[in-house]
Amino acid sequence: MDILIVKLGALGDVINTLPLIVNLRQRFDVNIHWLVEPLSYPLVAEHPCVDEAIIFDRNRWWWSLLQLAYHLRTNHYDIVLDLQRIIKSSLFCQAASADRRIGFDRQRCKELSWIFPFERIPASDPTGHMVFQYLEFATYLGLNELEVRWDIPIEGKYTFDLPREFIVLNIGASKPANLWQAEKFAELTEVIEDRLHVYSVLTGGKQDIGMADRIMSSYEGNSIINLVGKTSILELKEILYASRMVVSADTGPMHLAVALGKPVIALFGPSDPRRTGPFRGHVVRHPIDCSPCNRRTCPDPLCMKCIKPSDVFERIERLWLAS
Fold it and tell me: pLDDT (tens digit, 9 = 90+) per residue, 38-59?
């Protein structure tokens, strides 16, 4: 049986989909194909449960679309799963040569994607964690007693010179409203150095380099390593795995750290931790009347500003002593 997974989007969404494919591969005699965008492609392509990773690059959309259309029509799938639930993903599913096309129920669909004539899984709690929401597709296909496993391969090596023990502070976030302030990260690194005598390693994407520079300019110690904008996604995976724990806002590397089995401290403001929080981990948040609002931007994100470095370090220290 050949199954095509259509999950294009953000790194965290892709990682939260991995338990679904692990269960499908364990319980069915199946070949899994995955349509994904370039950011998450390396993780998908190397995963042992994925037989073929197919790229759709929206930055070269015309050429990529032609290649994808040819691929979808010249290969036949028994089942296509639309896990993205937007118009674009539904069109890709519709274009695929397939016996069955399965998508979310109407309530959980976006952009009117419910209008496509797919099989629909039963309605469920839209605020439930996304790992469980994706696993509903396995239940719909007849699987029970599901395991939550990510099975991400680890090589145990990286090219950076890092200390034996360190804490990762992942400073970025895909949504600006989810960002914590640079000066608070700087203060947190100083407390970590003073109290635990351990290095902090900053990680993030190229878009976070300016924030990293502000953290470094505010930092007054000597136990910080700045890797922001310097790692590939596969290098980041190895660094997260080697860390003692990870502090992060709501963003893809937070979910990657969870999948790798690391202790995670997640800083949450606009997002709903019930749905997109760490599947296993500790959430630090300061509830206010308008949170969670799920807004991408906010002129004054008080919910993130109210999180104090002392609140975060309290969780760090507790986990450090327990591990």
Answer: 999 999 999 999 999 999 987 8
Distances (CA, A) of 286 to 164, 269, 275, 308, 314: 33, 7, 17, 9, 14
Query: Are 283 and 273 a contacting pair, CB within 8 Å?
Result: yes
Asked if residue 146 is part of any domain, the answer here is no
Same domain, 100 and 41: yes
How confident is the model over 180-194, as pLDDT tens digits? 999 999 999 999 999
**What ranges in 40-168 are assigned the alpha helix state H?**
41-46, 61-74, 87-95, 130-140
Q: Is residue 95 in some structural domain? A: yes
Residues 220 and 78 in one domain: no
pLDDT over 90 (residue 132): yes
Six-digit token string for 25: 């591969």
pTM for this entry: 0.94
Structural domain containing residue 188: 166-322
d(CA 178, CA 134): 24
